[in-house]
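Handout, section B. The chain below has 199 residues.
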Amino acid sequence: MSAVAIVDNGGGNVASVRFALERLGAEALLTNDPQRIRAAPHVILPGVGAARDAMRRLAESGLDRLIPALTQPVLGICLGMQLLYAASAEGDTPCLGILAGAADRLPAAPGRAVPHMGWNQLVPLRPSPLLAGIAAGDYAYFVHSYALPPGPDSVASCDYGGPFTAIVSRGNFHGVQFHPERSAATGARLLANFLALGS
């Protein structure tokens, strides 16, 4: 198997994503080289931090134009998933525009802090190869302050003061709001399902 390209966008979770892929037997390459990303069989767009900073880094390397044109399976993780959409309310940031919608800040309430941090249950919304072996009620690990409402491309949702998209899929573009590299067996299965796409 050729190396999975992990887009080097300054996120702090790239080492753990790489190790999670290697545990599944997949070689992973951290890069922002457009040629290597274009040639990779699978591409992962990780993300930790602010949407505006992440989009600025993608633009500086020309990846804001390359990523929407990719034809192989692409997986956005956490902020990386949000960047696949049209915009984020975080800094009123235009994003990649692959998916319709805009990320908005989660509403805080007594006993419900923002960021949403910890384990929460997945609710499947429609069949998807990404959900193979993942059951309703399985737990995944989340760390985020912004989220997308469920929409036509949502594969699974989660609830934190209201439903939000936990997994999204449209064509060759996919995303997870949780961190699969920190989500134990559920996360490993999700990553394995993603690696099986296009094979």
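Note. The radius of gyration is 15 Å. Compare this with the example in section A.
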